Amino acid sequence: MNEKSNELVRREIITGSRRFSNYLLTIVLTLGGIGFVLSGCSSYFKINLLPFADPTQLTFIPQGIIMLFYGVVALTISIYIILTIIWDIGSGYNEFNKEENVVRIARNGFPGKNRKILLSYSIKNIKSIKLSIEDGLNPKRAIYLCSKDQRQIPLTPVEQPRSLQELELQASTLSKFLEVSLEGI
Question: Cis ω on the peptide bond leading into residue 62 (within 30° of 0)?
Fold first, then answer.
């Protein structure tokens, strides 16, 4: 997360789906999907379409059709990930502006009527900054903006969990900047 700040305005740039892991996953799914589709087609047509294997020995039902199905599913998922990368879903910024007394949270969504998501809150309506840490099999570490009307707005992007030290530093810096309390530590 990139940060730009001065004494009265703090802006955090949020990385969306244009991450290295998504690019790598798309490449792996595309290559695997093509391989499975070619294997399924080779077993149906009895023509070897793969240079490194001989799937013509497979019976089309059930093995070839299952490989064809897995290939189509992998290619469909890779197309979906490619589209989220192109549209940069989830990218945006968090802006904390003391000059205008407002907090703006902007994100890109899927194309359509509500593609740009912009939330604005008055700094007066902010109760606290909450740090939420859940460990276990699927760890979740997030910073929330808590409003006086009991809403919790997530400020951290969806990504690999960051270190506790980094998360605590960001939350405490933000709570000092906004002059609100810090919960959850």
Answer: yes
| C-alpha distances in Å from residue 132, one per residue of 67, 87, 153 | 42, 29, 12
What's the CA gap between 185 and 171, in Å, rounded? Answer: 10
Q: Are residues 68 and 116 in the same domain?
A: no
Residue tagged 């810090």 (tokens): 182
Co-location of 55 and 42 in the same domain: yes
**Sheet containing 152-154: order of strands:** 152-154, 140-147, 126-134, 181-183
SS3 state of residue 167: helix
Residues 30-47 pLDDT 10s? 999 999 999 999 999 999
Taking the whole predicted model, whether its pTM rises above 0.85 is answered as: no
